[in-house]
Amino acid sequence: MKTSHLPAGGWLAAPPPSLTAVQKYWLFRPGALTAGLRRLGQVRLRVLAEYAEGARPDEALALRLAPGAAVWVREVLMSVDGVDSVVARSLTPLAASRAMWQGMRRLRTRPLADMLYHDSGVRRSRFVCRRLASPVPFHRTALAALRAGQADGPAPAAVPTLTLAIVEAEAGARAMPPPGVLARRSVFWRMGQPLLVAEGFLPAFWERARVLRDARPALP
């Protein structure tokens, strides 16, 4: 798979020196993230929401779209051995979700990697990273995922439930301390159509990754 440059303000092309080796590794680990997560344990993917909206400025810049342009969004939560570990937000122009990237509408609980890493015509930008904060749209998604994960019972799998969590997250964001979610993102391109994929590592993930790294020296 070829790579290309991703021009996007506010995101870093290299990890800050203050991050640990484990954090730097996962933020810039090449290949499919789900493949790496499976080295840590059993991975389960839950769809949090799928919906259309207007592109936010931060994401429109990465997609090379005008702010407010119609996009299709897919948000998922991945757990490792039952521990909520990674929240992901993927989006593409609404028209592309019915054409070049229509496969993302049919994935259900399968990861995006199933349609991204077996096509020689797909190229991916370099990874960029940052610690999530408002007003980055993905910050709102991560807060909602953290709140959803704190609830008893199965994680939400419908738009109304996540929408309620997002509303609550927005209402309480100023009163809550930042979750400290480190995230990475890149843009996949196929025949001129972009697909932005952002992945945020939840706090519980880092402890698990650190412990397993210490126990299994083969892991970076």
What does this structure look like?
This protein is α+β, with helices and mostly antiparallel strands. Helices cover 29% and strands 29% of the residues. Strands 1, 2, 3, 4, 5, 6, 7 and 8 form an 8-stranded mixed β-sheet that branches.
Task: Give helix and strand order, one letter per element, not per position.
Answer: EHHEHEEHEEHHEEH
The shape is: globular
Q: For the CA atoms, what is the radius of gyration?
A: 16 Å
Provide the structure class. alpha+beta
Low-confidence stretches: 4-8, 152-179, 214-220
Q: By CATH's scheme, which homologous superfamily applies? A: Chorismate lyase-like
Main beta sheet: 8 strands, mixed
Structurally, the number of domains stands at 1
CATH topology (level 3) name: Chorismate lyase
Total of helices: 7
Number of DSSP-assigned strands: 8
- Measured between the Cα atoms of the first and last residue, the distance is 23 Å
**% residues in beta strands:** 25-35%
- Summed over residues and divided by their number, the pLDDT gives a mean of 81
Q: Give the proportion of residues in helices.
A: 25-40%
If classified by CATH, what would the architecture be?
Answer: 3-Layer(aba) Sandwich
